[in-house]
Queue: 2 jobs
Job 1
Amino acid sequence: MKLKSALIAAAVATLAQASLAEEKVLNLYSARHYQTDEALYADFTKQTGIRINRIEGKEDELLERIRNEGANSPADVFLTVDAARLAKAHELGLFAPVASKTLESRIPAHLRTEDWFSFSTRARVIVYNKSSVKAEDVRNYEDLADPKLKGKFCSRSGSHPYNLSLMASVIAHGNDAKAETWARGMVANFARAPKGGDTDQIKSVAAGECGVTISNTYYVARLLRSTKPEDQKTMEKVGIVWPNQQTTGTHINVSGGGMLKTAPHKEAAVKFLEYLASDAAQRYFADGNNEWPAVASVKVSNPALESLGRFKADTLPVKNLAMYQAKAQMIFDRAGFK
Ligand SMILES: [Fe+2]
């Protein structure tokens, strides 16, 4: 008798757990790997009772995985970086539209679409060697194509989303011919063929191998915050420019996410996206990678970012960056920006 009731109790507990798992879980596919995100997820669970199952991976691999899993994908929310990748998920029809008054009122219109939302922003800045290049010669992205900088420009690949999105912004603002002339000018100025990531470019600029490069701000901030003597030396040698302050503003890109069409836990997914737009979450989300919150009223205190000063950001809708990805790649290909 005792055994029987114990068995029943165990069965009931299992059932309860199963239904709990069904209702109170969120499957998050995330390309973010920051320690501060742990606190973010724990806080969400505390507030909502929804447990987060996290699958981490590289941006493009996660996207592939969701595609391959198809209708059976357990993924509820996909978080990644760069408008290009978010746009790709949209084009593949992976995201579901989310109508949320909270997201609409919190996230500025130029930083959201109907099915994906930006939660933080990063800027693409010019980094130059203070002893070989003058700041006034690199005030604008256009200057990178000036013959004055022959043999001095270094960059990561033209196929990388960060450069594609920057090129997409140039296309969106100007015309295709101008964009191609710009790409050809940069290729003519290469100190070497594109290789490595943004941090590698900054180090090459500091070492004098290159005179100037472009980098996302969080890499600059990471080096500025580093306690390693070699990183501190690197940053002493370089200057940072906010490009295009007299014209379109500095190009910004985003980190963000959306709910998947096949999400098994749609209610939890919307709750999570709304949570990411809250004050506390915005601070964690942005500061975890030295970025700026997408919600304008949220202030973070990040000394490295603050030391870079204030700037005018390009307010081009992120949707438009997405729109010109293919054209951007074509232009880089034609110009030989590999
Ligand atoms: Fe990055």
Note: The pocket of fe (ii) ion is lined by residues 216 (CB under 6 Å).
Job 2
Amino acid sequence: MTADGRRGPRFPLGLPHCADGATIVLRLMRPSGIRPSAIGSLCVALAFLLAPAAPAQDEPPPAPLPVFEFHSGFWLNLHHTLYRQARLQRANPGAGAGIANLTAGEQRVWAAAVGFYGRNYAGKDLTVSLEMILIKNQLGDFETCEDLAGLKKKTCDAGLPARLTEALDSAAPVYRAHLWPEHDRSNRRWIAAVAPLVRRNGLDLAHRLAEIYQTNWPKERIRVDVSSFASATGAYTTLDPMRVTVSGADPRNQGPEALEVLFHEASHGIADGVQDAIFRECRQRDKPIPRDLWHALLFYTTGEVIRPLASPTGTSAGYVPYAVREGLYKRGWENYLRVLTQYWQPYLDGRVEFGDAVAHMVSAL
Ligand SMILES: [Zn+2]
């Protein structure tokens, strides 16, 4: 569901570029070998609010939501679609193009792009490969551009590797004609469905989770790229800058569960404190660090915090948290559920201190 890496370091692919419209953030280049935390104090993000972005397609611009900023971007969706198709073909070489009714010419162009992804990217993990993270972020930033080589607008030169630019630009007309209208509609449907939940509960949830993890919620709204495909888990988060990618088509992300997925993902960006506390307790006790305990804790916590909100009666009844529904605790996390229920829940209920709860969990494993 997320990147395993605690920090997703960020290197520019080239000089900072500007997409037209939207909010552009220029990032200073980070010399290799410098820790993200060190660069954090050096790196001042300069945000320039340019002319307002063109209204998306033919829908009126919605009133701004709190906490999250949703995008349905052409290039990011094309990138994930090609990646997915390339992985499908890798697993099953007989798999078709993934698009019906292509002309021979379109077939050739699309197959070439999928082949390029197969050779270069299908073996890489979207959530942990620095290269994949940088490409994804760059494509998000250039979502309003018609092409990525800057042929029509110089500012649209995304600075991506030339062969990748060529693959994306050549596949774009095929994608635009055959898949994008439905992908975009599906993304926007998902955004429209989750928006009232975010509007109603977003700020409270953000405050509550920040309080639980004893930190501050990010001041800026968190960018969420909605994509037809978003890794095998249906959603993932990359850090520095924190961005969430979520599949609007994934059956796991529908209904009130969409809200849980969003806040689980966002929690990845604010849960360093709990990871550090777990590591510290383990070191003090000379115990191995329980693999993914912090991640199980994130799932548990988001589930418990969302539960009363997601239930129509306003109680904890009737809503099954993601980790329970998807059987995560049955896949090696049984002990984690036990210690979370026994020692973490009292902290969520305000009955014990953060440090004591973590110490108890670690000593009980
Ligand atoms: Zn996660």
Note: Confidence is low (pLDDT under 50) at residues 3-55.
